[in-house]
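Customer escalation, tier 2.

The customer says the design service returned an amino acid string that "doesn't look like it belongs to this structure." They asked us to rerun it and document both sides in this ticket. The original C-alpha coordinates are below, unchanged.
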Protein backbone atom coordinates (compact mmCIF):
# COMPACT_ATOMS: atom_id res chain seq x y z
CA UNK A 1 0.00 0.00 0.00
CA UNK A 2 1.27 3.47 -0.95
CA UNK A 3 0.31 7.06 -0.18
CA UNK A 4 -0.49 9.85 -2.62
CA UNK A 5 -2.37 13.15 -2.86
CA UNK A 6 -4.63 14.71 -5.49
CA UNK A 7 -2.44 17.81 -5.67
CA UNK A 8 -4.08 21.10 -4.73
CA UNK A 9 -3.15 23.12 -1.64
CA UNK A 10 -4.52 26.38 -0.16
CA UNK A 11 -1.40 28.39 -0.95
CA UNK A 12 -0.74 31.24 -3.37
CA UNK A 13 1.18 30.28 -6.48
CA UNK A 14 4.84 31.16 -6.03
CA UNK A 15 7.96 29.17 -6.76
CA UNK A 16 8.81 29.02 -3.07
CA UNK A 17 5.34 27.71 -2.16
CA UNK A 18 5.53 25.00 -4.83
CA UNK A 19 8.92 23.97 -3.45
CA UNK A 20 7.68 24.09 0.12
CA UNK A 21 4.59 21.95 -0.51
CA UNK A 22 6.55 19.37 -2.50
CA UNK A 23 9.32 19.11 0.09
CA UNK A 24 6.76 18.81 2.89
CA UNK A 25 5.08 15.87 1.13
CA UNK A 26 8.40 14.14 0.53
CA UNK A 27 9.54 14.70 4.11
CA UNK A 28 6.25 13.38 5.50
CA UNK A 29 6.73 10.21 3.47
CA UNK A 30 4.22 10.48 0.61
CA UNK A 31 5.17 7.75 -1.86
CA UNK A 32 3.60 9.30 -4.98
CA UNK A 33 3.72 13.07 -4.31
CA UNK A 34 2.06 15.23 -6.98
CA UNK A 35 3.38 18.46 -8.32
CA UNK A 36 1.48 20.92 -6.08
CA UNK A 37 -1.40 22.60 -7.92
CA UNK A 38 -1.51 26.10 -6.48
CA UNK A 39 -3.62 27.56 -9.29
CA UNK A 40 -7.17 26.76 -10.33
CA UNK A 41 -7.24 23.30 -11.97
CA UNK A 42 -9.37 24.62 -14.85
CA UNK A 43 -7.45 27.84 -15.46
CA UNK A 44 -4.10 26.06 -15.72
CA UNK A 45 -5.28 24.12 -18.78
CA UNK A 46 -7.68 26.56 -20.46
CA UNK A 47 -5.57 29.73 -20.40
CA UNK A 48 -3.27 28.29 -23.13
CA UNK A 49 -6.36 28.00 -25.37
CA UNK A 50 -7.07 31.69 -24.78
CA UNK A 51 -3.51 32.46 -25.84
CA UNK A 52 -4.11 30.87 -29.26
CA UNK A 53 -7.61 32.42 -29.57
CA UNK A 54 -9.54 29.16 -29.52
CA UNK A 55 -11.23 30.53 -26.40
CA UNK A 56 -11.89 34.01 -25.11
CA UNK A 57 -12.24 35.05 -21.49
CA UNK A 58 -15.23 37.27 -20.74
CA UNK A 59 -15.98 38.27 -17.14
CA UNK A 60 -13.98 35.28 -15.87
CA UNK A 61 -16.00 32.97 -18.14
CA UNK A 62 -14.38 30.87 -20.87
CA UNK A 63 -16.27 31.11 -24.17
CA UNK A 64 -15.59 29.29 -27.42
CA UNK A 65 -14.09 31.72 -29.92
CA UNK A 66 -14.22 29.65 -33.10
CA UNK A 67 -16.96 27.81 -35.01
CA UNK A 68 -17.36 24.29 -33.64
CA UNK A 69 -17.66 23.13 -37.27
CA UNK A 70 -13.97 23.92 -37.89
CA UNK A 71 -12.43 21.35 -35.54
CA UNK A 72 -9.96 20.04 -38.13
CA UNK A 73 -8.31 23.44 -38.38
CA UNK A 74 -8.03 24.24 -34.69
CA UNK A 75 -4.45 24.62 -33.45
CA UNK A 76 -3.13 22.92 -30.35
CA UNK A 77 -1.70 25.09 -27.58
CA UNK A 78 1.87 25.23 -26.40
CA UNK A 79 1.96 23.30 -23.15
CA UNK A 80 3.81 24.22 -20.02
CA UNK A 81 3.07 23.66 -16.33
CA UNK A 82 5.41 25.81 -14.27
CA UNK A 83 4.60 23.97 -11.04
CA UNK A 84 5.53 20.66 -12.65
CA UNK A 85 8.78 22.05 -14.04
CA UNK A 86 9.76 23.38 -10.60
CA UNK A 87 9.22 19.92 -9.11
CA UNK A 88 11.09 18.18 -11.93
CA UNK A 89 14.09 20.45 -11.32
CA UNK A 90 13.98 19.83 -7.56
CA UNK A 91 13.97 16.07 -8.06
CA UNK A 92 16.88 16.26 -10.51
CA UNK A 93 19.01 18.70 -8.54
CA UNK A 94 18.45 17.17 -5.10
CA UNK A 95 18.36 13.52 -6.13
CA UNK A 96 15.01 12.95 -4.42
CA UNK A 97 13.83 9.34 -4.54
CA UNK A 98 10.11 8.53 -4.43
CA UNK A 99 8.04 5.84 -6.13
CA UNK A 100 7.02 8.38 -8.81
CA UNK A 101 5.77 11.93 -9.17
CA UNK A 102 2.03 12.20 -9.73
CA UNK A 103 1.17 14.33 -12.73
CA UNK A 104 -2.32 15.81 -12.39
CA UNK A 105 -4.14 16.74 -15.62
CA UNK A 106 -7.71 18.00 -15.79
CA UNK A 107 -9.66 15.86 -18.25
CA UNK A 108 -11.43 16.87 -21.48
CA UNK A 109 -14.97 16.41 -20.16
CA UNK A 110 -14.43 18.60 -17.11
CA UNK A 111 -12.59 21.25 -19.14
CA UNK A 112 -15.34 21.31 -21.77
CA UNK A 113 -17.96 21.74 -19.05
CA UNK A 114 -16.28 25.04 -18.13
CA UNK A 115 -16.37 26.44 -21.67
CA UNK A 116 -19.57 28.19 -22.75
CA UNK A 117 -20.89 27.97 -26.31
CA UNK A 118 -22.02 31.62 -26.24
CA UNK A 119 -21.25 34.59 -24.04
CA UNK A 120 -24.98 35.39 -24.06
CA UNK A 121 -25.98 32.08 -22.49
CA UNK A 122 -26.27 31.58 -18.75
CA UNK A 123 -23.27 29.84 -17.31
CA UNK A 124 -23.99 26.16 -16.75
CA UNK A 125 -23.43 22.57 -17.79
CA UNK A 126 -26.16 22.53 -20.44
CA UNK A 127 -24.87 25.63 -22.21
CA UNK A 128 -21.28 24.38 -22.22
CA UNK A 129 -19.24 22.76 -24.97
CA UNK A 130 -19.69 19.44 -23.17
CA UNK A 131 -22.81 19.18 -25.33
CA UNK A 132 -20.60 19.03 -28.45
CA UNK A 133 -19.22 15.50 -28.59
CA UNK A 134 -16.99 16.24 -31.56
CA UNK A 135 -15.35 19.16 -29.76
CA UNK A 136 -14.69 17.06 -26.66
CA UNK A 137 -13.67 13.78 -28.29
CA UNK A 138 -11.81 15.15 -31.31
CA UNK A 139 -10.23 18.35 -29.99
CA UNK A 140 -10.17 18.61 -26.20
CA UNK A 141 -8.92 15.02 -25.93
CA UNK A 142 -5.96 15.97 -28.15
CA UNK A 143 -5.23 19.02 -26.00
CA UNK A 144 -5.21 16.94 -22.82
CA UNK A 145 -3.11 14.24 -24.48
CA UNK A 146 -0.49 16.88 -25.26
CA UNK A 147 -0.25 17.81 -21.57
CA UNK A 148 0.00 14.14 -20.61
CA UNK A 149 2.83 13.55 -23.10
CA UNK A 150 4.66 16.62 -21.78
CA UNK A 151 4.43 15.45 -18.16
CA UNK A 152 5.26 11.81 -18.88
CA UNK A 153 7.78 11.94 -21.70
CA UNK A 154 9.41 15.35 -21.17
CA UNK A 155 9.35 15.84 -17.39
CA UNK A 156 9.47 12.15 -16.50
CA UNK A 157 6.37 11.92 -14.30
CA UNK A 158 5.51 8.22 -14.50
CA UNK A 159 2.16 8.35 -12.65
CA UNK A 160 -0.40 10.41 -14.57
CA UNK A 161 -3.94 10.92 -13.28
CA UNK A 162 -6.75 12.51 -15.27
CA UNK A 163 -9.02 14.56 -13.00
CA UNK A 164 -12.64 14.27 -14.18
CA UNK A 165 -15.04 15.43 -11.44
CA UNK A 166 -17.77 16.20 -13.97
CA UNK A 167 -18.10 12.53 -14.90
CA UNK A 168 -20.02 11.81 -11.69
CA UNK A 169 -22.51 14.50 -12.79
CA UNK A 170 -22.94 13.72 -16.50
CA UNK A 171 -22.98 9.94 -16.03
CA UNK A 172 -26.02 8.70 -14.15
CA UNK A 173 -27.39 5.35 -13.04
CA UNK A 174 -29.22 4.70 -16.31
CA UNK A 175 -28.14 7.27 -18.89
CA UNK A 176 -25.34 9.62 -19.88
CA UNK A 177 -26.01 13.26 -20.69
CA UNK A 178 -25.55 14.63 -24.22
CA UNK A 179 -25.70 11.20 -25.86
CA UNK A 180 -22.23 9.96 -24.94
CA UNK A 181 -21.81 6.19 -24.79
CA UNK A 182 -19.79 4.04 -22.40
CA UNK A 183 -17.52 3.09 -25.28
CA UNK A 184 -16.88 6.69 -26.36
CA UNK A 185 -15.83 7.86 -22.91
CA UNK A 186 -13.69 4.78 -22.23
CA UNK A 187 -11.98 5.11 -25.61
CA UNK A 188 -11.33 8.82 -25.03
CA UNK A 189 -9.62 8.16 -21.69
CA UNK A 190 -7.56 5.39 -23.27
CA UNK A 191 -6.41 7.56 -26.15
CA UNK A 192 -5.23 10.18 -23.68
CA UNK A 193 -3.41 7.75 -21.37
CA UNK A 194 -1.97 5.24 -23.86
CA UNK A 195 1.70 4.58 -23.18
CA UNK A 196 1.72 6.02 -19.65
CA UNK A 197 3.65 3.86 -17.21
CA UNK A 198 0.99 4.06 -14.47
CA UNK A 199 -2.29 5.76 -15.36
CA UNK A 200 -5.28 6.67 -13.23
CA UNK A 201 -8.54 8.59 -13.27
CA UNK A 202 -9.78 10.67 -10.34
CA UNK A 203 -13.54 11.17 -10.03
CA UNK A 204 -14.96 12.62 -6.82
CA UNK A 205 -18.52 12.34 -5.61
CA UNK A 206 -20.76 9.29 -5.74
CA UNK A 207 -19.79 6.78 -8.43
CA UNK A 208 -22.91 5.68 -10.36
CA UNK A 209 -23.16 2.22 -12.00
CA UNK A 210 -22.64 3.44 -15.56
CA UNK A 211 -19.48 5.30 -14.55
CA UNK A 212 -18.17 2.13 -12.95
CA UNK A 213 -18.69 0.34 -16.27
CA UNK A 214 -16.87 3.13 -18.13
CA UNK A 215 -13.82 3.01 -15.88
CA UNK A 216 -13.62 -0.78 -15.68
CA UNK A 217 -13.75 -1.05 -19.46
CA UNK A 218 -10.77 1.21 -20.08
CA UNK A 219 -7.63 -0.51 -21.31
CA UNK A 220 -4.91 1.76 -19.95
CA UNK A 221 -6.43 3.15 -16.74
CA UNK A 222 -5.01 1.10 -13.86
CA UNK A 223 -5.84 3.23 -10.81
CA UNK A 224 -9.40 4.23 -9.89
CA UNK A 225 -9.14 7.23 -7.57
CA UNK A 226 -12.27 8.16 -5.58
CA UNK A 227 -13.71 9.67 -2.40
CA UNK A 228 -14.48 7.10 0.28
CA UNK A 229 -14.40 9.20 3.46
CA UNK A 230 -17.21 11.61 2.57
CA UNK A 231 -18.82 9.10 0.19
CA UNK A 232 -18.63 5.78 2.09
CA UNK A 233 -21.16 4.18 -0.28
CA UNK A 234 -18.38 4.12 -2.86
CA UNK A 235 -16.94 1.19 -0.89
CA UNK A 236 -19.68 -0.96 -2.41
CA UNK A 237 -19.23 0.19 -6.03
CA UNK A 238 -16.44 -2.22 -7.00
CA UNK A 239 -15.94 -5.79 -5.90
CA UNK A 240 -12.53 -7.37 -5.51
CA UNK A 241 -13.43 -9.90 -8.20
CA UNK A 242 -14.27 -7.10 -10.66
CA UNK A 243 -11.03 -5.29 -9.94
CA UNK A 244 -9.06 -8.49 -10.48
CA UNK A 245 -10.95 -9.37 -13.65
CA UNK A 246 -10.30 -5.95 -15.21
CA UNK A 247 -6.85 -5.57 -13.60
CA UNK A 248 -7.69 -2.33 -11.78
CA UNK A 249 -6.53 -0.93 -8.45
CA UNK A 250 -8.19 1.46 -6.03
CA UNK A 251 -6.77 4.70 -4.67
CA UNK A 252 -8.83 5.23 -1.53
CA UNK A 253 -9.76 8.65 -0.17
CA UNK A 254 -9.65 8.26 3.61
CA UNK A 255 -9.73 11.84 4.94
CA UNK A 256 -12.15 14.61 4.04
CA UNK A 257 -11.05 17.34 1.67
CA UNK A 258 -14.17 19.38 2.46
CA UNK A 259 -14.10 19.46 6.25
CA UNK A 260 -11.43 21.39 8.18
CA UNK A 261 -11.40 18.97 11.11
CA UNK A 262 -8.26 16.83 11.29
CA UNK A 263 -9.27 13.19 11.54
CA UNK A 264 -7.72 11.02 14.21
CA UNK A 265 -5.39 8.22 13.18
CA UNK A 266 -7.99 5.76 14.47
CA UNK A 267 -10.73 7.31 12.31
CA UNK A 268 -8.56 7.13 9.21
CA UNK A 269 -7.55 3.58 10.12
CA UNK A 270 -11.21 2.57 10.21
CA UNK A 271 -11.81 3.79 6.66
CA UNK A 272 -8.66 2.10 5.36
CA UNK A 273 -9.45 -1.21 7.07
CA UNK A 274 -12.89 -1.21 5.47
CA UNK A 275 -11.17 -0.64 2.15
CA UNK A 276 -8.84 -3.57 2.79
CA UNK A 277 -11.83 -5.74 3.68
CA UNK A 278 -13.56 -4.82 0.41
CA UNK A 279 -10.66 -4.67 -2.04
CA UNK A 280 -7.84 -6.72 -0.49
CA UNK A 281 -4.64 -6.52 -2.49
CA UNK A 282 -6.43 -4.35 -5.05
CA UNK A 283 -6.21 -1.43 -2.64
CA UNK A 284 -3.06 0.20 -3.96
CA UNK A 285 -3.04 3.71 -2.50
CA UNK A 286 -4.54 5.76 0.33
CA UNK A 287 -5.00 9.53 0.05
CA UNK A 288 -7.29 12.46 0.81
CA UNK A 289 -10.68 12.37 -0.89
CA UNK A 290 -9.81 15.26 -3.19
CA UNK A 291 -7.61 18.35 -3.23
CA UNK A 292 -7.26 20.74 -0.28
CA UNK A 293 -7.73 24.07 -2.03
CA UNK A 294 -11.24 24.49 -0.60
CA UNK A 295 -9.99 24.44 3.00
CA UNK A 296 -8.90 28.06 2.64
CA UNK A 297 -12.49 29.21 3.12
CA UNK A 298 -12.61 27.85 6.68
CA UNK A 299 -9.66 29.76 8.10
CA UNK A 300 -8.56 33.34 8.65
CA UNK A 301 -5.58 32.80 6.37
CA UNK A 302 -4.20 30.25 3.92
CA UNK A 303 -1.29 29.38 6.17
CA UNK A 304 -3.60 27.87 8.79
CA UNK A 305 -5.49 25.96 6.07
CA UNK A 306 -2.20 24.62 4.72
CA UNK A 307 -1.12 23.42 8.16
CA UNK A 308 -4.36 21.42 8.44
CA UNK A 309 -3.82 19.92 4.98
CA UNK A 310 -0.28 18.82 5.85
CA UNK A 311 -1.39 17.30 9.15
CA UNK A 312 -4.09 15.29 7.35
CA UNK A 313 -1.40 13.92 5.00
CA UNK A 314 0.92 13.18 7.90
CA UNK A 315 -1.76 11.08 9.59
CA UNK A 316 -2.44 9.13 6.40
CA UNK A 317 1.25 8.19 6.30
CA UNK A 318 1.08 7.17 9.96
CA UNK A 319 -1.84 4.84 9.20
CA UNK A 320 0.15 3.21 6.41
CA UNK A 321 3.12 2.83 8.76
CA UNK A 322 1.03 1.13 11.44
CA UNK A 323 -0.66 -1.22 9.00
CA UNK A 324 2.64 -2.25 7.38
CA UNK A 325 0.74 -3.37 4.28
Amino acid sequence: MYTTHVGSFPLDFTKSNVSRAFHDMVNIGIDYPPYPQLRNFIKIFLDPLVDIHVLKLINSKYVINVPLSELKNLPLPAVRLEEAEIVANIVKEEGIHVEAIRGCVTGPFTLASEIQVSEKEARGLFTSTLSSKDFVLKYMARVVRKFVTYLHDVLGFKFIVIDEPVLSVMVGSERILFGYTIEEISKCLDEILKGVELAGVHVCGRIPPLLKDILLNTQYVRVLDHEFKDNPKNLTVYTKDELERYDKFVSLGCVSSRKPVIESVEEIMDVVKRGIDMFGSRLLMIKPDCGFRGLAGFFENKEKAYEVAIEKLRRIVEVKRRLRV
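Tier 2 assessment: The sequence is consistent with the input. The chain is about 40% helix and 15% strand. The radius of gyration is 19 Å. Sent an explanation to the customer and offered a walkthrough call.
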